[in-house]
Specification:
It is a single chain. By secondary structure, the protein is of the alpha/beta class. The strands form 4 sheets. Strands 3-4-14-9-10-13 form a 6-stranded mixed beta sheet, with helices on both faces. Helix 1 packs antiparallel against helix 11. It binds pyridoxal-5'-phosphate. The site of pyridoxal-5'-phosphate has 21 residues, from helix 6, helix 12 and helix 16.
Length: about 450
């Protein structure tokens, strides 16, 4: 346990780190610039000419409203995410897991945010920004449906019409979330191209944006896409680590040894890591979906995983240079994960850079380990996690010896949306800690 002195020193360091990151070097009145959107060799703005005006307008709005709080934008965002969203979310000690692994495990409970996942932090921020920009229509893509749901909720809350593009395959995997979007008054448009998952949904939403740039804002759902999206989404999501850092120091008197979060595009990951990046003693683990195998079948164009940080190579996807699952000709290969929210062939450019720099360690667990993690957290802590989140608990189980004495894990979302998938996937596999599934065999009757 450390003293009050150490505690306030830790908080001070958090403050000065955030200041450095935003490029301020003087007093309070300094203007903060949006920068060029490069993270080392990654990031950038690889978009068709037709989108450049929209990207320019958005970069300007990000700089004015988000970075410089013009018109009190950030004050309104913080008020709304508190009152509508329910922030701050708790940091909870996981008693049973701490005992099981003989290490202190703390859970950052983003599953308790309104809507059941971290996605609202970003969706509310962007829909509010669209209002400040005078836009009249919101579009979004969604994979697991959590971002679509969060955007639909934010759009209803702020009285904006909203259309969500979703791959046909994901619509079938995530029916409750499709209904939630519709209940909130959003249109859901199925995307039938390719495999019908997140990659195709993003491409389709970009096409809509390019056609309707005048009145429409595209609320992208992760730290991906052209600048300023990766940085802006990270900024909205960094409330997670702003709170978690203060909460863990308050609770234990010191910083944690490690911070763990699952990684699809990487928005909960960057949000959970951001305020710890300057704390070199804190190890950061991004847990990707290892799927059924890490091998890539280049001939078939299939990677039975979504581990782009662990196994991908450099290329351009959805407007940014980053790490990707691709074949030798640069064609994006099909990814796979038991969790639709991690099922994406790319990853945010900042994460790719932090991995190259050695600041973030990319790790992965397979579908079975994620399902075991899902059942373990449900049984031992009374928290049913999203299948995306369950990957972080699969990693905790396999590598708790390497995480030090105190670990913070982000519970990025709750698992209600995944119950159908969890029944189906658990029934067809041999998951050692699953409950008796015999009543579900042969399908739900
Ligand atoms: C609960 C949850 N966690 C994690 C993710 C992965 O997204 P990201 O890597 O952007 O946090 C998703 C995506 O839908 C999700 O719903």
């Amino acid at each position: 346990m450390s003293s009050e002195g150490e505690r306030s020193e830790a908080s001070d360091r958090a403050g000065s780190k955030a200041t450095r990151e935003n490029g301020r070097d003087g007093g309070d009145g300094d203007h903060v610039s949006a920068g060029d959107g490069k993270f080392g060799r990654y990031g950038g703005q690889y978009v068709p000419e037709a989108l450049m005006p929209a990207i320019g307008e958005l970069t300007d709005a990000y700089e004015r409203y988000v970075l410089n709080n013009e018109g009190g934008f950030m004050d309104e965002f913080r008020r709304r995410i508190r009152e509508f969203g329910g922030r701050p979310t708790p940091l909870q000690r996981a008693d049973r897991l701490s005992e099981r692994y003989d290490t202190e495990v703390y859970l950052k409970r983003e599953d308790l945010l309104h809507g059941g996942a971290h996605k609202l932090n970003n969706a509310l921020g962007q829909v509010l920004l669209a209002k400040y920009m005078g836009k009249e229509r919101i579009i979004a893509e969604t994979g697991a449906g959590q971002h679509g749901t969060a955007t639909a909720m934010a759009a209803a809350h702020l009285d904006m019409p909203c259309e969500v593009y979703m791959g046909e395959r994901d619509i079938n995997r995530q029916r409750p979330n499709v209904f939630r979007m519709k209940i909130n008054g959003s249109a859901v448009t199925p995307v039938t191209t390719g495999r019908g998952t997140l990659k195709e949904a993003i491409s389709e939403t970009m096409r809509d944006w390019a056609t309707n740039v005048e009145d429409t804002h595209y609320v992208i759902g992760s730290v991906v896409g052209p600048h300023p999206f990766p940085r802006m989404v990270r900024d909205f999501q960094s409330l997670i680590s702003e709170e978690a850092r203060e909460q863990i120091v308050d609770r234990t008197g010191a910083l944690p040894d490690s911070v763990v979060a699952c990684a699809g595009g990487g928005s909960n990951t960057m949000g959970t890591f951001h305020n710890f990046i300057g704390d070199e003693a804190v190890d950061l683990f991004a847990v990707e979906a290892g799927g059924s195998s890490l091998a890539v079948d280049a001939e078939e164009g299939v990677a039975p995983n979504s581990a782009s940080l662990s196994t991908g190579s450099e290329g351009v996807l959805h407007g940014a240079r980053t790490k990707l699952l691709q074949d030798h000709d640069g064609q994006i290969v099909e990814s796979h994960s038991v969790s639709s929210g991690l099922d994406y062939a790319g990853v945010g450019p900042e994460l790719a850079h932090l991995v190259d720099e050695g600041r973030v360690t990319p790790v992965n667990v397979d579908d079975d380990a994620a399902l075991e993690g899902f059942h373990r957290l449900s049984q031992e802590e009374g928290i049913i996690p999203a299948l995306e989140t369950a990957h972080a608990f699969g990693y905790l189980h396999e590598h708790h010896d390497e995480l030090g004495d105190v670990t913070v894990i982000n519970v990025s979302g709750r698992g209600d949306k995944d119950l159908d998938t969890a029944i189906e996937e658990t029934t067809k596999r041999d998951i050692p800690n699953a409950p008796d599934m015999s009543m579900f065999e042969g399908g739900l009757r």
